[in-house]
Structure formats: structure tokens, C-alpha cells
């Protein structure tokens, strides 16, 4: 048993391709405009032709009534087919091409007509307006059918009205002129439509190239997916036009750059201000995975030019990764310090064991006292001058690392810093970065030395870090504070050139400054000024001992002798 498949239904509708859709819509618009223009032209054309026919009839009637002998012949003869009025009227009708020329008396009786049998009878239309002295133009039906008419009064030599003249233009001739004009109009309309179709084809081809022949539904889907992707990814996306103005910011870019909706349409300099971030996004700084600092965030930027002369830049937040990298550096430094201490401790234990085996007990006691005293002296020297526990602990640890690297880390005699910091973590970051850079600068040099000075001037904190390294050339003293600048190879886990930039930004965030100059005797001297970094001192009723000094005195023990 065989079955025939059902016939496929013919589906009529818009084509799927954009080229075909645009072409079809534009051709339909051009055709509609041509038809509408033709209709709008034909409608007044009919009225114009009617008006022209009535005016022509009126002009023939006026010319007929102006014949001087016609009024005399009307009053001196009787109406007849071979009378002088009929002869004159027929002469004028044949000469002008009118359908009829009717001359009537005051009673509306015809003295002339195209059909001689109608002479002597009353006219079929009302002649009262013309007999009353008014000129009339109209389109009306009479014994000869529909015609365009003109009626005027007929006056004698004295100006008295003795009758009227009615002239008719066959209405079919008016309609024929209108119909005759239609083919020409349609020819012009067809030409305009052909030009419109050609223009529509060229525009559609251009749209096809620009949209890659995608359907409208595909473009709408792509736009929806683009919006979802841009606002869903965890990377910042910034699109720029050929003039360097921001034309798109996704949600992550707004968060990372700290911008709002008002930034769209602004230039990078206006929206971001002068700085490395604006230079990286504008393409002034070239490269891949460029590091920049925006506020407290460390960003990695990549920029890709577009075909229209603009560019798209992506931003990744590396703040947490950078913090982890610095913590890893600190951990490694601590491990190295512990390893060095362990090695040094083993050597000292071996020395102590030898003194005991040789029964040199007094020398053993003196040796232990010297070892303990050295460590205690360093810690006490720092805590006596720096009362903030976080800063003191940081410098004690850095002193241990410096000693292992054969660098003398000291605290200046001018240092005196109270425990009244408002943002202790920020100053710890600044001190840590500067001390690390100083240790790297003096590593491997003779008589390597790093000195830290911390002072409180009212509520202002002043930090100075000096080293005996090679120093910073005068031409690079501002450049070293820019993002990504470094003279050292980057470690595997993160980039270089962020520390000093963060130092300056932390200082400027508090309204302060970060500068570098040449230290006395060579090397570099970094100066950080932080206004309003210290809280107001608590009011006291009388002299009290410094709590740090009391803690120091309490924990101090008599050294073994």
C-alpha cells in the first residue's frame, strides 16, 4: 500500500535574508510613493482641466456677445434656422471648436443651436443669472449631454441686456485629455520607480556587506547575546571610537575604573584624568598584559584596534593576585630569615657545646649573654622609638632579613613615632615596599646600609628611607613612580613596577606626597609625607609614663654575666 506525501504548503511572507528584506521593503516603498504621487497629481489635474474648459467656454461666450451686430439681429429678427443669429453663432462655433453656441432672448428662447430643430424652444438650463447680468461658469447636463458651460449677458449699443449667450465645451473632450495624460504620468512614475528600485538594490548590497548578510532575527539575537556577555563576564570591557571617546563600558569596567554612565561619550582624559591608565587604554603605551593602578586596584590591560579606527580594551583585576604575590614574597623572605637563623643558631649551639665540653663555663655564660643581648638590643632599639606595634614588628622582621643579606638596617636617632596611626596597614605597606626596594638596591655592595626615619609632626607622619645604593638618576626620579616601571626582572608569579606606584597612590589618597632625592653620601632617600595620618593625642591629667616604655621596662631582664 502506497501513500502519497501531503503537498507542501506554500508559505508566503518576508524572506529571511536581510538583503532580500531590505530590497523588498524599499521597492515597495518606492512603488507606493510613485502610485501616491501619481494619484495626488491626477486628482488636481482633473479639476484643472475642468476649470480650463469652463474658462474657455466663458471666453468664447464673451467673444460672441461682443459682436456689435448680434444684439441688433436678436431684437430685429425672429428665431429661425436660416436667420442671421444662427449663422453668426454657427460660424463662431466652428471657428472655436465649441460643442454649441446658443443665443437666447430675455425669455430664454433659443435663437441659435447646433440642432436647428431646437431653435425657438426654451433652453434646458436656467438662464436667469446670465440674464440678470452675471457671468456663469459651470459643468451641467443639457440637451447635448454633459458639458462645460460659460454664460454671459448680451447687451445692445446702449448697454441694456437684451439676451444671453451660452457656450458649451463637450465634457468628453475634457475627459479624453485627462485619459491622454495618464500614460505619460505612468511613464514618469515607472521611471521614478525604476530609479528607486536601482537605489534600493545598491543600498541593500551595502547593507548586506556591512551586516554580512545576517537576518534581522540573527542580528537581534547577536545583540542580546552581546549584552548578556558584556555584562556577565568578570573582565572589564571598554570600547573607544576613532576620536578616543568612550562608547561602551560594561558593568565590570565601571566597577574597576570607578566610572558611571556619564563617562560614555567622554574622552579618556576627561573620564579618567591624566595618568598611565588613560595612556594604556588610549594606546600611548604599547604591549600586552600591561600593568596599571587605578585607585587601590592593580589592573592588567590589553588593547585591540578595530576596523573603524577605534579600539576595545579589556581589564582584569589583579589586586588580590598582587597582594598574594607580595605575601608570598614576605613569606619567602621570612623563610630565608628563619633558615639563616637556624643555620646561625646551629653554629652558636656548636660553639656553646664546645665551650661546655672544654669546661670553659664563664666563657659559655658570656657567649650566651652576647647573643641574647644583640637580638634584644635590636628589638628594644626599634620599640623604644616606634610605639605602633605593627610598624615595630615589621621593622624587627626586616632587620633580621637585612642581617642575613649582610645589610645593616637601622632606625634613625631622630625617629620618634607614637601609637596614634589612623591607617596603620597603609603605612605598613608603604614602609614594607620602601625597605624591600632599599634592600634590593644595596644588595651586593660594600658597607650596605639602610636607615629608616619616622617622625610625627602634629598629626602629620613623615617617613624617610635612605640607602647606600647607586641612587636614582635625576631624569628618572618621577618615572619610577609610574606603573610598570622597574629595573629588575619580574618574578614568575607577578609583575614588577607596582610597589612604588602603590606607595605614591597611598600617599596621595591621604592628601600626602612621595618624593625621591639623593641621600647624603650617595644613594637614594625616599620621603613620604602623610597629613592627617595620626589621631589627636588623648588628653591627660598629668604626666604619665609612655606605655611602650613601661612595657619595655617590664620585659627587660638582667643579662647573664
From TrEMBL:
Catalytic activity reads: ATP + protein L-histidine = ADP + protein N-phospho-L-histidine
Domain PAS stretches: 222-264
Cite a single GO BP annotation.
Answer: regulation of DNA-templated transcription
Tell me which InterPro entries the record gives: HATPase_C_sf, HATPase_dom, His_kinase_dom, PAS, PAS-like_dom_sf, PAS_fold, sCache_3, Sensor-like_sf
Annotated region (Disordered) at 532-561
GO cellular component terms listed in the entry, alphabetical order: plasma membrane
Q: Where is the composition biased (Basic and acidic residues)?
A: 546-561
Which GO molecular-function terms appear in the entry? ATP binding; phosphorelay sensor kinase activity
Cited CDD domains: HATPase_DpiB-CitA-like, PAS
Q: Which UniProt keywords apply?
A: ATP-binding, Cell membrane, Kinase, Membrane, Nucleotide-binding, Phosphoprotein, Transferase, Transmembrane, Transmembrane helix, Two-component regulatory system
Chief place of localization: membrane
User: Which compartments is it annotated to reside in?
Assistant: Cell membrane
Q: Does the keyword RNA-binding apply?
A: no
Query: Which residues does the UniProt record annotate as the domain Histidine kinase?
Result: 423-534
Q: What is its EC number?
A: 2.7.13.3
Q: Which PANTHER family match?
A: SENSOR HISTIDINE KINASE DCUS, TWO-COMPONENT HISTIDINE KINASE
Q: Any idea what this protein is called?
A: histidine kinase
Q: Identify the species of origin.
A: Streptomyces dioscori
